[in-house]
Design brief:
The complex is a heterodimer of chains A (about 270) and B (about 240).
Chain A: H1 2-17, H2 20-40, H3 42-48, H4 52-74, H5 81-86, H6 88-93, H7 99-132, H8 138-141, H9 144-164, H10 168-193, H11 199-211, H12 219-227, H13 231-237, H14 243-267
Helix pairs in contact in A: 1-7, 2-4, 2-7, 4-7, 4-9, 7-9, 7-14, 9-10, 9-14, 10-11, 10-13, 12-13
Chain B: E1 5-13, E2 20-28, E3 33-37, H1 44-51, E4 59-64, E5 67-68, E6 78-81, H2 93-103, H3 108-121, H4 136-148, E7 154-158, H5 166-181, E8 185-189, H6 193-199, E9 202-207, E10 210-216, H7 217-220, H8 227-238
Parallel strand pairs in B: 3-8, 3-9, 6-7, 7-8
Antiparallel strand pairs in B: 1-2, 1-4, 4-5, 9-10
Helix pairs in contact in B: 2-3, 3-4
Classes of the chains: A mainly alpha (about 270), B alpha/beta (about 240).
Chain lengths: ~270, ~240
Amino acid sequence: MNTVLTIARASITEHVRRRLVLFFGVLVALAAVGLIYVSLSDDLTSTLLGTAVGIATFFSLTLLQGLATLAAVAVSMNNIGRPFADGEAMLILARPVARWQYALGRLLGSAALVVALCLLLVVLLQGINLIEGRNLGMDLWGHWATQAFNLVLLVAITTLMSALFGNPILAAFVAFFVYASSNFVSTLYLLVDTGRVGGVPGAVVTALWYLTPKTLVSPLAMERIAEGGNLVGASTMLLIPSTGARVAWSLAYLAATVALTFVLVQRKEL
Amino acid sequence: MPPAVEVESLVKHYRRSRRGLNGIDLTVGQGEVFALLGPNGAGKTTFVKCLLGLLQPTSGSISLFGDAAGNPAARRGVGFVPETPRFPDFLSPREVLRLHGRLIGLEGGDLNRMIDERLEAVDLADAPNRVRAFSKGMIRRLAVAQALLGEPRLVVLDEPTADLDPLGRRSVRNQIAAVKERGATVILNSHLLSEVERLCDHVAIVHKGRLLADGGIDELVPEGQDLESVFVDLVEGAGN
């Protein structure tokens, strides 16, 4: 485990030096502070999207989540492909280090940074809520561990893609597409689940549904979506009904992604 | 005492290239300074990568001090300088050495002392704080420093003096001599035959993945000839 942690630590140091984490940290802070301004400017918000809380929640659900998602992809798109292509991995792997240890170390480094960013975001939001006496963005970020898990899943998918593709930009795009396809495929799967689509198309959709990541959904977010009348959203999230089953699914998906990364890294030639 | 390196019937074929290794048998004893010579594309770097478990051989076996080379534990006590070393751009040279030191189980004050010694030895004690600001020669010297960290019992050097000025070359030569003096084994890939003649006591010549010659310098180089003429005769004699 020491070997894995040593590689993870070096990976974290490198990302921090690249100022990538600082960049996203500052963006998250600016976005969160912007929420205060928006929530205080009742005149402005009432003419735009309705209530101050409404627009602030909208921002917290999209802007902050978007930033966190971008950060997760940015810190993991170079995990495997680039160091294998330019020979950086060679010097590490010439040490008593197994390839799976190298891959796991790189993945853990990225995951630690993303979790730290989540925590920063939650602390900022909770601080704002404390000052404002509001409950902004808490349907998502109140269950921050759920969000952190989803971002770690994205890190794992991006790392897998970086093992598959030499080009980090391509790896990032494909990883994002795979991650984001979850809801879309789940919506399609509803048609199969309710018996409206069958045969070969049904089998294809079912296969896709099993292949797309199963992110965790916070219970409060599910309630909100159902309250808001977004039945498709609620149904797709409820396709794996119990919280325990959903967690098991998500963990299994994460484990499978990491295992597949190990297989690809083992076969990669230097 | 097992040999430092034992290679039996080593074959490595690449999927998209005709280059590779076609049945290499070789033994390098502990404490020897061994040079693997050959023209470009002969298979020297492939040999080194197989030796370090970086490439999976198509067939055959390699052992380091009696352990299978594919096993990461066999690489404990092995230092390596690749043909084109590459380090994380945003780490300092000290952090690079600390990373490598920790990977071979060094910690604390001992590690810090060794890092100071190695940086001093390659004249990088006052180098810029980020590897990205390094010249090619400085990167090569840092690679030599990381390879010699922790006094490995086997040092594998792939063109260690490429990109170095005459002073840097001499420094690396002196360090190889010091490694030899403390009884460690050195494997050297180099095109500089004069360097090889000066440092090595065991030489093998490889061409198109096959071993053309293997023996002590004294056995391979007859009186009145030099290594370069022997090398050229052997490679040209083997034809294309």
